[in-house]
Specification:
A: alpha/beta; Pyruvate-ferredoxin Oxidoreductase, domain 3; D: 70 residues; alpha+beta; Alpha-Beta Plaits; two-stranded antiparallel sheet; 14% helix; binds thiamine diphosphate; binds iron/sulfur cluster; binds magnesium ion
Chain lengths: 177, 271, 375, 70, 375, 271, 177, 70
C-alpha cells in the first residue's frame, strides 16, 4: 500500500515541517517514506507545497503523481495544488478556502484549521500541527503515538504543550467530521 | 484608476511583483522610475541591466529596454551596451551579493574607467534570493544561514570601495529616506561618468528573521533612527554621532567619461 | 543511526565521515544546503568553512586547503559549475585531491533554478579546456549520496584527481531514510605522504605506487606546484617529452585503474532482452518502470551507471551484444545517449526519452515509451 | 500626474497591497491602518495632508494619490 | 588583394568584412594578436574595442553590444575559454548572436601556453552547463580563417547562436598568402529586425522564419532579455510547457538547419578504402600524408570536418559504410575520435593517432602509423 | 662563492631566471627574501603563492612551499592555504594584471576579510607575459599593444583601492627605493591582518619600449626622481610637489585577523 | 622544390621580421611560402626562431622538420636550433658562435654577420638584414630584386638606405665565401 | 652572511649578469662599468664603500658582497 500526500499553503505556514514530521512518524511506524517539495522564487509569499509518500514497500519514484490526500490551507494553494484529476482523493481545505462546486471531488472537507489554531490554541503558527492531527485523525496513516513523539522531537523545546494541544485539537476536528 | 507611476513606467501585467511583503526592493525600484520621470528621459533610450537576485528581478517589471543577465555580471554586460551605443542611458540594478561579492571586480573596473553607467545597489546585507546566506555587507557578528554562529567577516562599505576604485559619483541612502533617494538617483543618472547609489534596504524575510530585527516596519524604523547625513554628522558632537551610520553624497566630481573619450578617438582617427 | 535526511544533508554527513575538514564555496540553488550544513558542522570538528566571493575562488581556496593536507570540498550547481571549470583543470593537472559537488538544476544559463535537470553530464567530463582525467559519480538516493560522497573523497585521495559528485535537484532535495553507519564500518583512504628524509619528487611515482606521494605544505618538503606542464620535480618544463610523460600518466589514471573506479548497478539484466539505462535521480523513475514492465511480462532490465566517468563501458558493451535494444532516459536532450550509441556500436538500437525543461519523467511516461519502442 | 493636490485622494489597490504596514507606520497623520483583511485601509481620510509619503514608501505600488475614479 | 598574414590577423580581416563593430576581450597567448589588431582597426571604422578586466566580462560586454545591434566578437584561448562558458550558455539561451574565437594551445590548465593543441574540441560543444545549441567551425589555413570568420558571423546572425571559431596555435600564428576579396564579393547576413509598428514578440518566430526577429536596444522596442527560461514575450516563466517549447526550438536550430550549417572537405574519398580524418591545423599534416600515401599506392582519402559542431555526421557515416578503416588524428587524447566511433557504429575500425603534449604530428608520423594500422 | 641570499632562499638550479635584462621583478623578489631573512622565518613555514605573469614566475625560484596558480586567482588559493593552516606565513606575489585586472575581486575580498596574507604587487603598468597590453595601472595616454592610440582608461591606484576595500596595511614603494621596500615588506609580513605592498616596477621590454621610456636604467632613474614619501610631500610647498608620485606606508592599523577569529570560533564551540 | 629555412638568434634580433621578408619576397617571385615561429617565456632574452618554407607547390605541412638552411646568430640559438641530423643542410652561424667540430655538418659557414652590421653599417640592429643578404647571396632562394623591394616595404620609412647597405653587405659576405 | 664588512668584496657572476647596467648607474662611488662582454665589471674597486646598493638593486643575483673565494 502506497499513500501519496500533498500538503500546501503559504510560505510561512510550516508545511514542509509538517511533511517531514509525517514522514518521520511513518518511519517510526516501520514504514518507508519520502518527502519532497516544490518551490520557486514565487515561494516568496506565494503558494508552497510539501509532498510525502508513505509505503510499506521500497519507494522508487519519489514524486507524488496521483495524491491520495491533499491539504490546502490557503486559497492560492488550493488553486494551484488541488488537482481534481483523482476524484477519489481526500481533499482537506481550510474553511477560508472556497472551491467551485464543480470539482467533482468525492471526499472534500472544509475544516476551520487556521481558526482553531488561532482561537483555540491561540497561536496561528500551529495550524500545521492542527492539520497533522486532523489528517492522522481522519486517516490513521501513522500512529498517533509516533506522530506525537516526532512532533516533540522535531519542534523547538518549550513548545511541547502547545503542540500537544494543537494535535489534540486536530484529532477533535477529525472526530467532528 | 491605476498607480500613475506604475502605469507610465512599469509593465502592469507583470505586477504585483514577487517580492515579500515589506521588502524594500519595491521602494527603490519606484524611486528609480521617479528619477527617470523627473529627468524626462525617453523610455526607448533607457536600458536597465541587472544580475541575478531578488533585487535583480526589478528590470522584468520596468518598461524600458531591460536585460537580466548572469549573477554578478550586470556591469560587464552594461559596459558593452553603453560603449556600443552611448546614447542609451544605462542603469544597473544589483544586489549587495551581485554587485560586491561575485560582481565586485566589474564594480571596481566600471568605477575606474568612469564609464557613464549608473549603478543602484539594493543593499539588504544578505543573499535574499538563495535564502539568507551572508553577503559581503553583512555586519560582523550577524547571523545568516551560512554564519550560524555569527559572521566573522568584516563588511564592505560599498560606497567607500567604489570611491577607492575611482568612482566620480557615489552616494549612500536608505529605503526609508525616499526623498533623498530620489534626489541622489536623479543626480547619479544625470552625472556624466560612473555613478553609484548604495540604497540600504531591508529584507525582513531572511536578514530580519535570522537576526531578530522584527517586522519590515521595525527595520525601516531602525534605518530612520540610525542613518544621518555625513555633513550633518560632521557638525554633531561626538556623543551624538555615536552609533550613527552615515549617508549622503560622498563624492561628485567631473572627469572625462569613457565612451565620450572613445568617440573622441574615433573622430580623431577620421582626420 | 537512522535519520531522515535530504540528499544534500547526507552529502555533508558523508563528507565529514570521509574526513572533510575544509569547505569553501558560494551559495547557489539547489546546492546551498550543503554549504549551510558545512558552515554549522565544520567548526565543531575543528574544520573550516568559508563562503568565498564567487565560485572561482570557492574552488581555488579548496585546492589551496587540500595542498596543506586537509580534505576539501566545494559544492555548486550549473552556473557555478561553469565558473569552476578553469580550476578543475588546474586540480587535474596539479593532481590536487578535491571533491566538487554539482547539484544539477534545469536548463542552460540561469534556466530553471529550482527544477531538476541532468544537463551537466557531458560538461562534467569536458567542461575544462584540454585533456584531463576526471572521475564523476552520480547517486540515486539519499543513502547512496552519503556513500558516494565518501567514495568521492577516497578516490580523490587515492588517484589525486578532482572527483565530481554529480547529483540533481531530485536526490539533493528529497528526504529519505538513511542508516548512518558507525565510522568504524567505513573505509577511509588517505593520500600517501612522503616519509621525512625521503628524496622527494613531488611528481614522480614511487615504484609500485599509483600516483606521486603528496606532501602537505608546511610539513618540511618545500616543493613547487604549478598549472604549467612540469616534470617529476614539479618545475615547469617546455620539453614535449616531459609533457608527454606527464599527460600519459595523468590520462592513464582512469584507464589503468578503471576496474577500481567503475561502478554500476545492473538490475534484472541477466535474462533481459531490453535495457532501460538511467542514472542519478532519473533511475528512480526507471526502477519503478522496470518493475511494472516486468510485472507486465516484459523481460527488461535496468542498467544504472554509478560512475558516469569513467563510464562502465565493458559492462554495457557486454549487454549491448545480447539485448534487442536500449532505452536511454535522462533529464536532458541526449548526452549519455551519445556514449551509449558509441558503445552499442550498432549491435542494438538505442532509443531515447529525455526532457530538458525542468520536468521529471514519470514511470508512466517511461512505460509508455518503452512499450512503443520495444514492441 | 499633473492633477492638483486638492483633487487627489488616496487609492489603495487591495489586490497588490501585501499588508506590510509601512505606509501605516510612517504616515505623518496616522491616516492609515491595516484592516481585518490584512491590507492597508484609510481610517482617518480627512486627516490626510496628501504628502505622498505612503505612496513613496509603499514597496508594491498599492497606495497612491490619484484623481477620483469616475 | 594579396597579403601575407597570420591566421589571427586574417580572423580580424574577416571579422571586419563581416561587419564586426565591437570587440571586447582579455589578452591571452596565442590569441592576443586578434585583440591587438582589433584595437588598431576598429576605431578607424567607427567600431569599438575594449580590453575588459577578465574573460568573463569580455564575453559579457560583447553580448551587451550585440543587443544594441552591433556585431560583436571576443577571442581567447583555453583558460579564458573555460571562464567564458557561463556566458556562452547565456548567449545560447537568450539567442544573442556572437562570435567567440578560441585559438587553442597545449594542455589543460596553464599547460603549454605557446604550443599548439586541439584539446578544447569537446569543451566547445559541452563546456557550459545544460543543453544548448552551439555552432563550431575550425579552419585549416590563413585563408580559411578569413572565410570562416565571416561565416561565423553570418551563422550567428542567421541562427541567433553563439558561434565558436576554433582555431589553434598552428593556424593562428603561421603566416601564409591570402587573397583578400573585394567586399562586394562577400555575402553578408544581417539579423532580421522587427519593423516599426509590429507587435513584437521578442522570442516568437514569425511564420516562415527561422528565429525570432531581434530588435536593437534603443530602437523603440522595449523588451526583456533574460537567462531564465522564458516564453515568447521574453519574460520568465516557470511553466514546463513553455520551457519545453523554448528548449525544443533552440535545440532544433542545429538539427533542422544542419545542411545549411555543416561543412567539410572530402579529398580523394570517392575511391578511398581508408580515410584519414583530421581538422584544423592538424589537417595540414594529414593532407601532406595523404598525398604521399597516395603516391605510395594507398587508396586513402582525407575527411576534414570544417564545422565540428554540428558534426558532418551523414557524410562521414556514408563513407564509414564503404571504407576499411578510419584513422583519426588530432592534437589531443581522442576527442573527435569518440564521435567518429559513434558514427562509424562498428562498420569499420577507428584507429587513432593523437598528441596532447604540445607536439605537432608530422606527416611522417602519420604515414608511419597509417602503414601500421592499414596493413 | 655564491650569492649568499640566493643560496639561502632560492633554488639555485633554477637560476638565472627568465626575466629580461633590467626587469625589476628580480629586485622585488630579492627584497622579499631579505625581509623573510630578517624576520627569521622558518622556510618550511613560508608559502609563496602567485598567479600567472612574468612576476608570477617568481615562486618557482624561491625555496619555500611554492604555488603557481591560475591567472588572477593567487589570493583565492592563498586564502585556502592560510585558513586551512594558519601557522603558514603566506605571501602572495602578483602582477598588476594578475592582481588588479582578472584578480581584482579576490584582492578586495581578501582585504575586506583582513585575512593574514601578505600581497606583494609587482606593478610594471603592463601585461609583460603576454607582450605588452595595457593593464589597469597603465597611465592614461600611454601606449600598449592594445592601446595603439594611447590608453583612454583611468588607472587604478592599487594601494588606494585596497584601502577602500578595508586593507589594514598598505604601502607603496618603487623598485629603485630598495631600502624602503625591504622595510615595508618586512612590516607587511609581520602585520597580523591583510597587508599589501605595491612595488612599482619597470618593464623595459614592453612598457618601456612602447612608451619610449629608455633603458632599464633610465626607467629606474625616473622612479628615483619622481617618487617621494607622502609624509615628506605633505611638508613640501605645492610647487615642489608638482609632478611627484607619492609612496610610503599609507595605512597600518590593527584589527582582528580572519583565521584567528575562526580559530576562536572553533575554541568557543568546544566548550 | 621545397626549401625549409630556420632563422634563429636572440629575442631582439629581428629574425621573425627577416623570416617574413624572405617569405614575402618568395611570394613576389611567384612562389608559395609559409612562415612560422616558436617562442616561449624563455624568449624573454633567450633564443628565438623563425621558420620559413618556400616552395613552387602548395605547402601543406607548415612546420619545418628537416631544414635545408639554418641561420644562428647567437651561441644559445645555435645550441638550441642547429640540428645536425640533416648533415646536408647549409648552416650559417655568426662568427661569435663556436660549434663543436664533431657536428658532421658538411656546409657550415661562420660569418662575421653581427660584426659587419655593427662596424660596417654602424647599427647592430640590421644584422638580420645583413643575414638576409648573405643567405640570398649564397642560395638565390629569392630574387634580389624582390628581396630588396620587400625589405623596403616592410621596414620603417627612413631606413631605406641603411637597409640597402645592409643587404649589400650581406651579398658581399656571400661573395667572399 | 655574517662576515665583517672589511672582509667583503664585490663578486660578479658573469654567467648570471644580464648587463642591464643598474648596478653601474646607481653605484654611489662609480666603482662599476659594463665591460666589453656586456657584463658588469669593477673599474675602480678601491673606491667601493661596500654599501651593498649594487647587490640590492641587481635583478639577477649577479653581483654581491662576499668573502674572498678561497
Ligand atoms: C554563478 C551563480 N552563482 C550563484 C547563483 C545563486 N544566486 C542567485 S542570486 C544570489 C545572491 C543574491 O543576493 P543579492 O545579490 O544580494 O540579491 P538579493 O536577493 O539579496 O536582492 C545567488 C548567490 C547564481 N544564480 N549564479
Ligand atoms: C585566464 C587567463 N587569462 C589570460 C591569461 C594570459 N595572461 C597570462 S599572464 C597575463 C598578464 C600578465 O600581466 P601581469 O599580471 O601584470 O604580470 P607581468 O607579466 O606584467 O609581470 C595574461 C593576460 C591566462 N594565462 N589565463
Ligand atoms: S527574500 Fe528578502 S530580498 Fe528577497 S524578496 Fe523577500 S524580503 Fe526581499
Ligand atoms: S499622503 Fe501622507 S498623510 Fe495622506 S495617507 Fe499618505 S502618508 Fe498619510
Ligand atoms: S505600504 Fe503598500 S503594501 Fe505595505 S501595507 Fe501599505 S499599501 Fe500595503
Ligand atoms: S617582459 Fe617585462 S615584465 Fe616580463 S620579464 Fe621582460 S621586462 Fe620583466
Ligand atoms: S657596494 Fe656600493 S660602492 Fe661598492 S660597488 Fe656596490 S654600489 Fe658601488
Ligand atoms: S645589475 Fe646585475 S645584471 Fe645588471 S649589470 Fe649589474 S650585475 Fe649585471
Ligand atoms: Mg542582497
Ligand atoms: Mg604587469
Amino acid at each position: 500500500m502506497q499513500l501519496e500526500l500533498r500538503l500546501s499553503g503559504s510560505g510561512g505556514q510550516g508545511l514542509i515541517t509538517a511533511g517531514i514530521i509525517l514522514a518521520e512518524a511513518a518511519l517510526a511506524d516501520g514504514k518507508n517514506a519520502v518527502q519532497t517539495q516544490s518551490y520557486g522564487p514565487e515561494a516568496r509569499g506565494g503558494a508552497s507545497k510539501a509532498e510525502v509518500i508513505i509505503s510499506d514497500e521500497i519507494i522508487d519514484f519519489p514524486k507524488v503523481t496521483r495524491p491520495n490526500l491533499i491539504l490546502a490551507l490557503t486559497q492560492d494553494a488550493a488553486a494551484k495544488y488541488v488537482d481534481a484529476s483523482n476524484s477519489d482523493a481526500m481533499v482537506i481545505v481550510d474553511e477560508s478556502v472556497e472551491l467551485s462546486p464543480e470539482t467533482g471531488l468525492k471526499k472534500l472537507f472544509r475544516v476551520p484549521i487556521i481558526d482553531t489554531a488561532r482561537h483555540e490554541i491561540g497561536r496561528e503558527i500551529v495550524a500545521n500541527i492542527v492539520a497533522l492531527g486532523l489528517i492522522v485523525g481522519l486517516t490513521q496513516i501513522v500512529s498517533q503515538e509516533n506522530l506525537e513523539a516526532t512532533v516533540i522531537k522535531r519542534l523547538p523545546r518549550g513548545t511541547e504543550d502547545l503542540n500537544r494541544m494543537a494535535l489534540q485539537a486536530g484529532y477533535d476536528l477529525a472526530k467532528q467530521i | 484608476m491605476n498607480h500613475p507611476l506604475a502605469e507610465s513606467y512599469f509593465r502592469m501585467d507583470k505586477l504585483p511583483h514577487i517580492w515579500c511583503p515589506g521588502c524594500s526592493h519595491g521602494i527603490i525600484m519606484a524611486s528609480i522610475a521617479r528619477a527617470i520621470d523627473r529627468l524626462g528621459l525617453d523610455k526607448d533610450n533607457v536600458c536597465i541591466v541587472s544580475g541575478i537576485g531578488c533585487s535583480s528581478r526589478a528590470p522584468g517589471y520596468m518598461d524600458f529596454n531591460t536585460l537580466h543577465t548572469t549573477h554578478g555580471r550586470a556591469l560587464a554586460f552594461a559596459t558593452g551596451v553603453k560603449l556600443a551605443n552611448p546614447k542609451l542611458e544605462v542603469i544597473v540594478i544589483s544586489g549587495d551579493g551581485d554587485l560586491s561579492a561575485i560582481g565586485g571586480n566589474h564594480l571596481i573596473h566600471a568605477a575606474r574607467r568612469n564609464i557613464g553607467l549608473t549603478t543602484i545597489c539594493f543593499n539588504n546585507n544578505i543573499y535574499g534570493m538563495t535564502g539568507g546566506q551572508y553577503s559581503p555587507t553583512t555586519p560582523t557578528g550577524d547571523k545568516a544561514t551560512t554564519a550560524p554562529y555569527g559572521n566573522i567577516d568584516k563588511p564592505f562599505d560599498i560606497t567607500k570601495l567604489a570611491i577607492g576604485a575611482g568612482a566620480t559619483y557615489a552616494a549612500k541612502v536608505t529605503a526609508f529616506h525616499v526623498t533623498q533617494m530620489d534626489k541622489y538617483i536623479e543626480s547619479a543618472i544625470a552625472h556624466k561618468g560612473f555613478s553609484l547609489v548604495e540604497a540600504i534596504a531591508v529584507c525582513p524575510t531572511y536578514y530580519g528573521r535570522k537576526n531578530r530585527k522584527g517586522s519590515a516596519v521595525e527595520m525601516m524604523t531602525w534605518l530612520k533612527d540610525h542613518y544621518i547625513d555625513f555633513k550633518v554628522a560632521e557638525k554633531l558632537p561626538p556623543e551624538k554621532r555615536e552609533g550613527k551610520e552615515l549617508m549622503g553624497e560622498f563624492i561628485n566630481v567631473d572627469a572625462p567619461e569613457y565612451t565620450a573619450l572613445y568617440d573622441a578617438l574615433i573622430d580623431r582617427l577620421k582626420d | 543511526m537512522i535519520k531522515f535526511l535530504q540528499g544534500n544533508e547526507a552529502c555533508v554527513e558523508g563528507a565529514l565521515m570521509a574526513g572533510m575538514r575544509f569547505y569553501s564555496g558560494y551559495p547557489i540553488t539547489p546546492s546551498t544546503e550543503i554549504a549551510e550544513l558545512s558552515a554549522e558542522r565544520l567548526p565543531k570538528v575543528g574544520g573550516k568553512f568559508i563562503q568565498m566571493e564567487d565560485e572561482i575562488s570557492g574552488i581555488a581556496a579548496a585546492i589551496g586547503a587540500s595542498l596543506t593536507g586537509k580534505k576539501a570540498m566545494t559544492a555548486t550547481s550549473g552556473p557555478g559549475f561553469s565558473l569552476k571549470q578553469e580550476n578543475i583543470g588546474y586540480a587535474a593537472l596539479a593532481e590536487v585531491p578535491l571533491v566538487i559537488v554539482n547539484v544539477q538544476r534545469g536548463g542552460p544559463s540561469t534556466g530553471l533554478p529550482t527544477s531538476p535537470g541532468q544537463g551537466d553530464v557531458m560538461q562534467a567530463r569536458w567542461g575544462t579546456h584540454g585533456d584531463h582525467p576526471i572521475i564523476c559519480l552520480t547517486p540515486d538516493s539519499v543513502t547512496e549520496t552519503f556513500y558516494l560522497t565518501i567514495r568521492a573523497f577516497n578516490l580523490a585521495e587515492k588517484y589525486r584527481v578532482p572527483v565530481i559528485l554529480l547529483t540533481d535537484e531530485i536526490t539533493g532535495h528529497m528526504r529519505e531514510k538513511i542508516d548512518i553507519p558507525d565510522p568504524s564500518e567505513i573505509e577511509i583512504y588517505n593520500r600517501k605522504r612522503p616519509e621525512t628524509g625521503d628524496v622527494y619528487h613531488p611528481y614522480g611515482v614511487e615504484p609500485g605506487e599509483i600516483v606521486p606521494r603528496m606532501a602537505d605544505f608546511g610539513s618540511g618538503f618545500r616543493y613547487h606546484v604549478t598549472g604549467l606542464m612540469h616534470d617529476e620535480t614539479g618545475f615547469p618544463s617546455n620539453s614535449t617529452e616531459n609533457a608527454r610523460k606527464l599527460m600519459d600518466r595523468l590520462m592513464a589514471k582512469t584507464v589503468t585503474y578503471r576496474d577500481d573506479i567503475i561502478d554500476y548497478e545492473a538490475l534484472y539484466t541477466e535474462d533481459a532482452d531490453w535495457l532501460i539505462l538511467a542514472y542519478g535521480g532519473m533511475s528512480r523513475s526507471a526502477r519503478a518502470a522496470v518493475k511494472v514492465l516486468r510485472q507486465k511480462g516484459h523481460s527488461v532490465g535496468l542498467f544504472r551507471p554509478i560512475s558516469l566517468w569513467p563510464f562502465p563501458e565493458e559492462a554495457l558493451s557486454a549487454l549491448a551484444g545480447k539485448v534487442k535494444g536500449i532505452l536511454v532516459t535522462e533529464l536532458n536532450y541526449g548526452q549519455i545517449k551519445l556514449e551509449v550509441e558509441r558503445i552499442a556500436c550498432g549491435r542494438c538500437p538505442v532509443e531515447f526519452l529525455g526532457r530538458g525543461n525542468g520536468e521529471v519523467i514519470t514511470p508512466e511516461m517511461l512505460i509508455e515509451t518503452f512499450e512503443e519502442v520495444a514492441k | 500626474m499633473t492633477d492638483k493636490k486638492e483633487n487627489l485622494t488616496i487609492h489603495i489597490n487591495q489586490e497588490w497591497c501585501k499588508g506590510c504596514g509601512i505606509c501605516v507606520a510612517f504616515c505623518p497623520k496616522k491616516v492609515l491602518a491595516i484592516g481585518e483583511n490584512g491590507k492597508s485601509t484609510m481610517i482617518d481620510p480627512d486627516n490626510c495632508i496628501k504628502c505622498g509619503m505612503c505612496q513613496m514608501r509603499c514597496p508594491d505600488f498599492a497606495i497612491f494619490l490619484g484623481g477620483s475614479d469616475s
